[in-house]
Write a structure and sequence with these properties.
Elements lengths: L1 H16 L4 H6 L1 H7 L1 H5 L2 H25 L5 H5 L3 E9 L4 E2 L3 E8 L7 E7 L8 E12 L6 E14 L3 H19 L2 H12 L6 H9 L10 H17 L4 H18 L4 H19 L2 H18 L1 H6 L1 H34 L14 H28 L2 E2 L2 H8 L3 H13 L6 H5 L3 H12 L5 E2 L3 H19 L3 H4 L8
Parallel strand pairs: 4-6
Antiparallel strand pairs: 1-3, 1-5, 2-3, 3-4, 5-6, 7-8
């Protein structure tokens, strides 16, 4: 019972804190729907108590977020717009294009530090931790919420270096990129670097193919990608009949390396937290622990900095992907296994009952990865629709085709890095990237079915997902949500 009360309180509190990000707050209905079961089936007085708890927690979360999030004051930013000279420190990895580069930076010589997005001519390479004297035109970028400062640099001068772990990791990424380009084909090098640490694709044809196919998140610093990798690694290692401790340790080490390779940015560290919790939940085998660990992590991050939850797309994607994996994937997996078994029985490949699951553990693990990909995509698609202005309905089947290959390709990329000092072997381990690139280019030519976002449609989608969560899990609910009055 106390764990049930905590789950309901945490869900309502986080939903209240996320009220400014309406699609994310509505996404929590995926959790709230099954959690409301005891409130709907208990006595009238108890239902009233649950309702009061939900309203109180949501109001407290909303109030806490208002108090902790500084209000945007345009007058303060207007004072520093126009032609200005600042001393800045590079805080984000520069994104290179044909004519310019963009990076995040923070002022270090001002009374009140502020962040900027700097656009500078390409050519001279900067790194995280570089301290620059920059002269350029500053203006408010209204495309973000809240608005941010954008600086078009005319003159840059490196005046110092702030040595840190993030700078060391950024330099390591550049060194690895140079080594990959020298030893393996450029296409393989781009895909290996993109999957391992989110290096932007430079080949315009390949970049366009990924964007058209709705797969740009695979080569970006993505919390969604990390969550899927964490889940896939757990299931594949479990399918190899490894001890539970070995599965947990190896999976945690894999996503820890992924976090380091991406530069250990704040959003990726928070996504790593969600991925680590997902691994612990999967290997523990206790679904009540899954629910409360997930909600406890969201509540803790909300208490630390509620603003991050509203602005941090990486954490939002990893959180919703985890929700989809935990709540939507199991019933989808059962349906997929049943369909596959019936097909095998009808064509004579299996003599077992049509209702019996497949006995091949590797096949079962691959089906489960596919189900989790589908569940995660369903959970994040309305959010992506609202944040990026359009949704490609074909992205769901395309991701279902491609995503199961991602853990294997990441393993190939990591193995290629380890074998770089040896002759010929890196070419062999990087070979799978070439047919994968051809597959992406083929999928990128498929006409997209894109629609502009609609707030009402997004609300309806998440309400539908909430109902589907309850309907698909109603036979599983007693396993992780005891009736009211019983010990949880």
């Amino acid at each position: 019972m106390p764990a049930t009360l905590f789950a309901i309180f945490a869900t309502a509190f986080v939903a209240g804190a996320l009220a400014p990000a309406v699609p994310v707050a509505l996404a929590l209905l995926l959790l709230l729907a099954p959690l409301l079961r005891p409130a709907l089936t208990s006595a009238k007085r108890t239902r009233l108590c649950y309702l009061i708890l939900i309203l109180t927690a949501a109001s407290a979360g909303y109030t806490y977020a208002l108090l902790r999030t500084p209000a945007f004051n345009p007058a303060e930013f207007q004072k520093i717009t126009g032609i200005q000279t600042f001393v800045l420190e590079v805080t984000g990895t520069p994104q290179q294009s044909d004519f310019n580069q963009r990076f995040r930076a923070q002022s270090i010589a001002e009374l009140n530090a502020f962040d900027l997005t700097v656009t500078a001519p390409s050519g001279r390479l900067f790194h995280v931790g570089d301290q620059l004297r920059v002269t350029g035109f500053v203006q408010l970028d209204q495309s973000h919420s809240p608005p941010t400062l954008a600086l078009a640099a005319k003159r840059l001068e490196r005046i110092g270096v702030h040595r840190s772990l993030r700078r060391t990791l950024a330099l390591l990424q550049d060194w690895l990129w140079s080594a990959l380009v020298r030893r393996i084909p450029p296409t393989s090098a781009e895909l290996a670097a993109g999957l391992l640490y989110g290096r932007p694709l430079e080949d315009p044809t390949l970049r366009t193919a990924f964007r058209n196919a709705g797969l740009s998140h695979l080569t970006a610093v993505s919390g969604y990608n990390l969550t899927l990798v964490a889940s896939a690694a757990t299931h594949l290692l479990t399918a190899l009949a490894l001890p539970r401790l070995a599965v947990t340790g190896t999976s945690l080490f894999a996503i820890f390396l992924f976090t380091l390779f991406t530069g250990a940015q704040g959003s990726v560290v928070r996504a790593f937290l969600m991925g680590a919790l997902l691994i612990l939940v999967r290997t523990s085998g206790r679904i009540p622990l899954a629910r409360n660990i997930l909600l406890g992590a969201a509540l803790g991050i909300t208490l630390l900095n509620p603003a991050n939850l509203v602005t941090d797309l990486g954490f939002q994607l990893s959180f919703l992907a985890t929700v989809g994996i935990l709540y939507l994937a199991p019933p989808l997996n059962a349906k997929l296994l049943l369909i596959i078994t019936r097909i095998k029985t009808r064509i004579g490949l299996s003599s077992t009952s049509a209702s019996a699951p497949p006995t091949n553990p590797l096949m079962a693990a691959l089906v489960l990865i596919g189900a989790e990909t589908l569940g995660a995509q369903l959970a994040v698609m309305p959010l992506l629709w609202s944040r990026f202005g359009q949704v490609n309905l074909l992205a769901l089947p395309i991701n279902l085709i491609v995503t199961p290959f991602v853990p294997f390709l990441m393993f190939c990329a990591f193995l290629t890095l380890l074998l770089l000092p040896l002759p010929l072997l890196p070419l062999a381990t990087a070979l799978p990237f070439l047919p994968f690139a051809k597959l992406i280019e083929l999928l990128g030519r498929v006409p997209s079915l894109s629609f502009p976002p609609s707030p009402l449609a997004i609300i309806i989608l998440y309400l539908g997902l909430a109902y589907a969560t309850y309907a698909l899990n109603q036979h599983r609910l007693p396993d992780f949500h005891p009736p009211c009055g019983q010990r949880d």
